[in-house]
Design a protein that fits this description.
Elements lengths: L5 H16 L4 E3 H7 L7 H13 L3 E3 L5 E2 L7 H4 L12 E7 H9 L3 E2 L13 H12 L7 E4 L6 E5 L1 H12 L24 H8 L2 E7 L5 H11 L8 H8 L3 H10 L2 H6 L10 H15 L8 H18 L1 H22 L16 E2 H11 L4 H9 L1 H8 L2 H4 L1 H6 L5 H20 L3
Parallel strand pairs: 1-2, 3-9, 5-7, 6-8
Antiparallel strand pairs: 4-8, 6-7
Length: 432
């Protein structure tokens, strides 16, 4: 086994502490990568680090093992509860642009390349980027680009992010040296400054097809266009799309709450952060806290889109209120940690084996507890043993409740809220 430096060992001991105190002896691969990101190019040290953890009884597990997803596809009945789109508002214009015009927009920061997208590394290799440049020189047409053009001074890229990034690195940043060329092998190791002028002009004059979503399209329509059109090497997650569409106070606010120590500890450091899933959890709390379960109509996407708009409009204009919600969220998370420990937001028919963290249980418990007064919250913590004793049998003896947790249907979501709210009230009402 390759030796491990004291610095690396210190980081690994921190991981062991997290796995022991807030988990069940496991840590997510995303947390392991985040903590040891400097080791990405040293596979021997990474293997030794994993072996060191195993010797201490700690195991690195797949991210998705830790998240219990909810079936949120609309059924036939739910579909009619959502107002259909007006086809006349689907306004997408095709434009042929010279590549130099697209590069000018990139150079002048008039295209949002979404730098906050924490995508997994290695999406496009140096060879893939180089062969894109080779295609331009060979006059091979590029696939179309798609943009949200609501703000004409700053287009948002919908499809083509990896291609635009490669173009930026070669033409604008001038940091890409070509490698792995298939036909023009003489150009290997050549960068922009060394490229023959005839090839530079040929590429700059290349016509590229761009489809622009024009201003006026409803937000939920743009969201669905995003989901339908995006065909990149790594399909965008729902929260990544919302992050692109709702730039503003909401994007920074959700990140701050997701990065809080209270959130990380209450969720056992088990929610992957590289695809913004942690921010979706926070957004689910805000949506149900602000709008209430009675307004939920069966489309979680539209519900969460509405919450992003609400944060940008109302929290931005009332920073004191935004701080109040943040403080309430932290209190609730700390309360859940005290009540449920490492089993918070998970199915818990017992307190032996820790299950996957549940989106449904997270949004339900956090939004309901946030409605309690400070005295009620303290009382619930004092009566945590009574609460857990009443709560755990619901997973084995109440089939209706158990099944509702895995469904995004209106009736199921309202049922889980109803039953947990009733439980909270019962425990608070017990005579001391």
């Amino acid at each position: 086994m390759v030796g491990i430096s004291d610095k690396v060992k210190q980081e690994l001991d921190n991981i062991i502490s997290i796995a022991t105190n807030y988990s069940d002896g496991t840590v997510n691969e995303s947390l392991f990568r985040d903590v040891l990101q400097s080791l990405k190019k040293d596979p021997d040290t990474i293997r030794s680090s994993e072996e060191y953890l195993r010797q201490k009884g700690v195991y690195v597990v797949s991210d998705r093992m830790e998240i219990e997803e909810t079936d949120e596809n609309l059924n036939f009945t739910d579909f009619y509860e959502i107002k259909p789109y007006d086809p006349s508002k689907i306004d997408i214009s095709p434009k042929n642009l010279a590549l130099t015009n697209l590069l000018s927009r990139i150079e002048n920061d008039e295209i949002d390349l979404m730098p906050d997208f924490q995508r997994k590394s290695g999406l496009w290799s140096q060879i893939q980027k180089s062969q894109l440049i080779e295609s331009l020189i060979l006059r091979i047409p590029l696939p179309a680009f798609y943009f949200d053009g609501t703000d004409n001074d700053r287009w948002i890229i919908i499809d083509g992010l990896q291609r635009l990034t490669a173009l930026k690195e070669f033409f604008v940043d001038k940091t890409l040296s070509l490698t792995g060329m298939e036909f023009l092998r003489d150009l290997n190791n050549v960068d922009y400054d060394c490229m023959p002028g005839v090839y530079i002009r040929r590429m700059q004059e290349t016509q590229v097809v761009c489809y622009i979503i024009n201003p006026g399209a409803p937000v939920n329509l743009k969201y669905n266009i995003f989901k339908r059109i995006n065909t990149g090497g790594l399909e965008l997650e729902s929260q990544e799309i919302r992050h692109a569409l709702f730039q503003g106070f909401s994007t920074t606010y959700l990140k701050e709450l997701a990065d809080s120590k209270a959130f990380l500890q209450a969720t056992g450091y088990s929610i992957p952060r590289d695809r913004m899933l942690d921010r979706e959890f926070v957004l689910r709390f805000i949506a149900f806290f602000e709008f209430g379960v009675h307004t939920y109509t069966g489309s979680i996407d539209e519900y969460l889109n509405k919450a992003m708009e609400y944060i940008n409009k109302n929290y931005e204009n009332d920073k004191n209120y935004a701080k109040e919600v943040e403080d309430k969220f932290i209190i609730v998370l700390n309360g859940c940690s005290k009540i449920f420990g490492k089993f918070a937001f998970r199915r818990m028919p017992d307190q032996v084996r820790r299950r996957s963290i549940s989106k449904a249980l997270f949004e339900t418990w956090t939004s309901l507890l946030a409605k309690l007064s400070d005295d009620q919250m303290r009382l619930l913590i004092e009566r945590k043993d009574i609460l857990c004793a009443k709560y755990m049998p619901m997973f084995t003896g109440d089939e209706e409740f158990y099944k509702s947790i895995g469904s995004g249907k209106v009736a199921a979501v309202k049922k889980q809220f109803e039953k947990i709210e009733r439980l909270i009230k019962e425990v608070l009402a017990i005579d001391s």
